[in-house]
Known about the structure:
- This protein is α/β, with parallel strands linked by helices.
- It has seven helices and twelve strands.
- The longest helix has 12 residues, at 201-212.
- This is N-(5'-phosphoribosyl)anthranilate isomerase.
Amino acid sequence: MQDVRVKICGLRTEADVAAVARAGAAYAGFVFFPKSPRHLTLEVARTLALGAPDGLCKVALVVDTDDAALDALVEAVPLDMLQLHGHESPERVAAVKARYGLPVMKAMGVADEGDLAGLLEMSLVADQLLIDAKPPKGADLPGGNGLAFDWRLLVGRKWLRPWMLAGGLTPDNVAQAVRLTGARQVDVSSGVELSPGVKDPAKIAAFVEAAQGVRGGVPILR
Ligand SMILES: O=C(O)c1ccccc1N[C@@H]1O[C@H](COP(=O)(O)O)[C@@H](O)[C@H]1O
């Protein structure tokens, strides 16, 4: 059985990237959404991405972004994956994949059973799914709010593509979430912060350790 692969999202400093690499996370997420406290300029993102160690997958999170802005992003920042975290349709996901030749992870908000059909449809086109809590109506951010959904909705479900669990995960609850859902990949932003946008290296390390301390539903005794 493989280790659980961890994505830490919303990195803003070189120290954040170093902490993520040191902890053994697989993915580093950079947010390009001006309303977010984790939003980066292209210049800062380029510096962080160029300084990231080999093997760390650099993911750009964008929300309903048009081609002009995506062109500028992909031109400026060396990236390994795009995360579409808005209302992008399957057709838009396919168009982004074709235009940039980068793998695309599509975030899908889940609140109840009714949201699961959309995931299946999206798994026909996206390279990966990111299954997050649905943001409350009127929320400023479509993600990164520290909100969890009922993980029991995912028990026994299968998708056509790899998927990542997100939404309200913390060092304290990620092991339970992995055990219950069988997730092989998890993503966190606010759960490893001291305050919005300020990552805590100790929480990052604790999160990765907790996520990877579970195999096949049984906690590992180290
Ligand atoms: O992190 C953000 O600021 C953000 C902004 C806009 C869309 C998504 C965002 N974050 C993503 O949301 C999930 C869940 O966040 P949290 O762990 O509940 O705080 C996170 O994994 C990011 O990929």
